[in-house]
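Progress note, sequence design subtask.
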């Protein structure tokens, strides 16, 4: 069977919605240049694809050459790996006659594909070369490879083509095996190998008859020894003339005793771990397999990351007490290593003293400084250090190793020059990133559209805060965390798509996004931070996924256009004022999973018509429904009961919340205390009768009851809270006299 050309596969992938049989929801992923992300080899081409229905990324492998028995082999491999749970392996699925390709070199039109999870990362050999100057990274990857080798030694299957090219180092540093074309599984016992693997990483005597669970033993020992040697002496790799292997190659295996590299490695035998791996390799070379040795020999001691001393970016009281000032009033620590804080001034440029290592948190915040020049001694830059609308010029010297994850340049959207000399950071399309793009520190230049790099993991606190012109932002599937206040005060932001990769939305993340109209919380998110969408006054609809367990304090506070919200069965707590002040909220469903409703959770939701409290609820905070004027209030919880006006605790001794406005109300005889603000702003209330059982009236209990004329209070009341009857301007004379008898002036805010 002939297979299509790469260009022909590419054309079909461009129109994947019409070309796939089962996988019709997959779409190609494009790079910044507008090209489809792909990689190719001698036997296959791999395309990066995205599932439109779930947002998940996949790799689709299309074959370029025939391999006898491929269909059966992949079915056997799939059957074996289906029940193997390991982060070292990708999930795979083989589809026959899946992709339609109009080919000029084949009479067939439907071709097989292999579907795999997409792994973002680099091959092991590239990783080693990229980190050749980072001794800790090399030691750590050697340790991780040893763990993987030990695991593989215990398995009844083998990879079959184990080499650095087929081992990916993911973004979080984990190792993942790819390319399973040559894999052996127990169901293949007695068969011949379909391929023999790379000559530089296979035993020199291996033939197609050598096909069992031990075919990985030699490359495991070879790579393990090589990695350990490089970690001990990087010059071994740097001086190696061959770039397509680590230290040894095919020609070395045939006469290992005369190999110059092996002789060089003998100088490292005083290291106990290397000596062990060296012995494993020589044994594997002489016997082809390691069936007689323990997998534990691959296990190495985990290395601890060296502690790099970085001065704190916080200006302590002791620092400030002993501070010295320069001629501009800028405060430095006594030893001159920290710039603590600057006074308010409008200098064109301020040159920080040479020898300064730290710019402290908020050092130039709100100073009006236009330009700052940092010396080559700066190591750390603190939170909100330059949060200043007037700043137009700043630099990041080569010495800078740390920038706080609370955007030091929050709101500095007038910057015209940001000179970055440090290799640890980079600006791309107006956004400051860490050099590996994993961390989004924040926007530096004012733009209406931002596309965050698809390698990013974390959007830092206040990253885009105050970007008033921002209308659209694309958050890629790689992002897992949206920091506190990340999009706060983005007044023009109308819509936001939160990808399935995000697990947490920080406190006040979208506070005061006045133009935001809708938001969908994806299945990956488990918590919505405090005040996450506070004062999003245009927000009309919210879809919360069934993965969210907690809706934070004031999460949707004062979202006055919000009309409906469905709380999923996963939520167990609705925190204080979560939906307080949502005046347009007409309906809300509280599921049976909710156990706690916080203080003022639905306070002043004036349009809320009906609500049902499920039996699962055991705690309802004070004034949870005050000012709602609910027509149909159903309480199924055995921990509470209600009448037409109020919600009470189980034994009706305390009023939990007012649920409806009224004209005249007689408080039940069982109540002993009227809580703070229980009847506040009940503008229709004309008379209230307080029974002998009540001993105390809380702060501002009846504040703003403008129509209240008559108050009946018994002698049992011993305390009246601050402002309890403040602004009750229509109280009749008997009521006023009665309050005066209790030493309370109804029109004042004085304490009883």
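Output:
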């Amino acid at each position: 069977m002939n297979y299509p050309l790469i260009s022909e596969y590419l054309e079909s992938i461009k129109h994947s919605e019409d070309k796939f049989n089962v996988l019709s929801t997959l779409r190609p992923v494009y790079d910044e240049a507008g090209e489809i992300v792909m990689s190719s080899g001698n036997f296959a081409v791999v395309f990066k694809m995205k599932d439109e229905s779930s947002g998940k990324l996949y790799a689709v492998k299309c074959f370029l050459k025939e391999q006898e028995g491929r269909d059966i082999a992949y079915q056997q491999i799939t059957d074996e790996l289906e029940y193997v749970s390991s982060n070292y392996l990708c999930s795979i699925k083989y589809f026959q006659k899946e992709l339609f390709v109009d080919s000029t070199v084949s009479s067939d039109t439907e071709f097989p594909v292999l579907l795999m999870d997409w792994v973002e990362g680099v091959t092991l050999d590239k990783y080693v070369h990229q980190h050749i100057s980072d001794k800790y990274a090399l030691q750590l990857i050697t340790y991780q490879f040893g763990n993987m080798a030990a695991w593989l030694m215990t398995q009844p299957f083998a990879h079959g083509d184990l080499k650095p090219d087929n081992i990916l180092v993911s973004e979080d540093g984990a190792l993942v095996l790819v390319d399973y074309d040559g894999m052996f599984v127990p169901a293949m016992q007695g068969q011949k190998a379909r391929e023999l693997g790379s000559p530089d990483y296979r035993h020199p005597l291996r033939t197609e008859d050598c096909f069992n669970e031990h075919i990985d033993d030699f490359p495991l020992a070879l790579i393990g020894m090589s990695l350990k040697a490089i970690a001990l002496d990087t010059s071994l790799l740097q001086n190696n003339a061959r770039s397509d292997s680590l230290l040894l190659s095919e020609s070395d295996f045939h006469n290992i005793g005369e190999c110059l590299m092996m002789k060089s490695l003998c100088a490292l035998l005083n290291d106990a771990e290397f000596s062990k791996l060296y012995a494993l390799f020589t044994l594997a070379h002489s016997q082809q397999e390691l069936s007689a040795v323990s997998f534990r020999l691959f296990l190495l001691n985990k290395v601890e990351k060296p502690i790099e001393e970085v001065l704190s970016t916080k200006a302590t009281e002791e620092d400030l007490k002993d501070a010295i000032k320069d001629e501009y009033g800028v405060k430095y620590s006594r030893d001159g290593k920290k710039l603590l804080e600057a006074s308010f001034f409008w200098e064109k440029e301020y040159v920080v003293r040479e020898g300064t290592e730290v710019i402290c948190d908020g050092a130039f915040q709100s100073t009006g400084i236009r330009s700052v020049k940092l010396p080559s001694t700066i190591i750390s830059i603190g939170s909100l250090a330059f949060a200043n609308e007037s700043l137009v010029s700043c630099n990041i010297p080569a010495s800078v190793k740390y920038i706080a994850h609370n955007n030091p340049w929050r709101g500095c959207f007038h910057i015209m020059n940001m000179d970055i000399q440090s290799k640890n950071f980079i600006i791309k399309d107006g956004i400051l990133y860490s050099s590996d793009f994993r961390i989004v520190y924040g926007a530096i230049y004012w733009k209406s559209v931002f596309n965050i790099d698809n390698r990013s993991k974390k959007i830092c606190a206040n990253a885009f805060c105050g970007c008033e012109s921002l209308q659209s932002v694309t958050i890629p599937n790689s992002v897992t965390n949206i920091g506190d206040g990340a999009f706060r005060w983005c007044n023009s932001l109308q819509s936001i798509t939160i990808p399935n990769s995000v697990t947490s939305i920080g406190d006040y993340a979208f506070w005061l996004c006045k133009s935001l109209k809708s938001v969908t919380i994806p299945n990956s998110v488990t918590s919505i931070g405090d005040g996450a969408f506070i004062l999003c006054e245009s927000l009309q609809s919210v879809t919360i996924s069934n993965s969210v367990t907690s809706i934070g304090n004031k999460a949707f506070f004062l979202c006055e256009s919000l009309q409906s919200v469905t709380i999923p069965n996963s939520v167990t707590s609705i925190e204080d004022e979560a939906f307080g002040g949502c005046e347009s909220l007409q309906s809300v469903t509280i599921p049976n999973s909710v156990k706690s409703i916080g203080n003022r959770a639905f306070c002043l939701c004036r349009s809320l018509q009906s609500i049902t409290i499920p039996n699962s609820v055991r705690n309802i905070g004070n004034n949870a429904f005050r000012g709602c004027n609910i027509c149909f209030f159903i309480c199924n919880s055995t921990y509470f009961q209600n009448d037409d006006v109020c919600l009470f605790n189980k034994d009706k001794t305390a009023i939990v919340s007012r649920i409806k406005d009224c004209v005249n109300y007689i408080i039940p005889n069982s109540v002993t205390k009227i809580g703070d603000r229980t009847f506040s702003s009940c503008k229709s209330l004309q008379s209230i009768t307080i029974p002998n059982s009540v001993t105390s009236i809380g702060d501002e209990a009846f504040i703003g009851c403008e129509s209240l004329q008559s108050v009946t209070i018994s002698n049992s009341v011993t305390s009246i809270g601050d402002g309890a009857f403040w602004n009750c301007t229509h109280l009749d004379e008997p009521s006023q006299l009665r309050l005066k008898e209790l030493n309370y002036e109804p029109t004042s805010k004085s304490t009883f």
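The radius of gyration is 34 Å. Work on this subtask will continue into the next period as scheduled.
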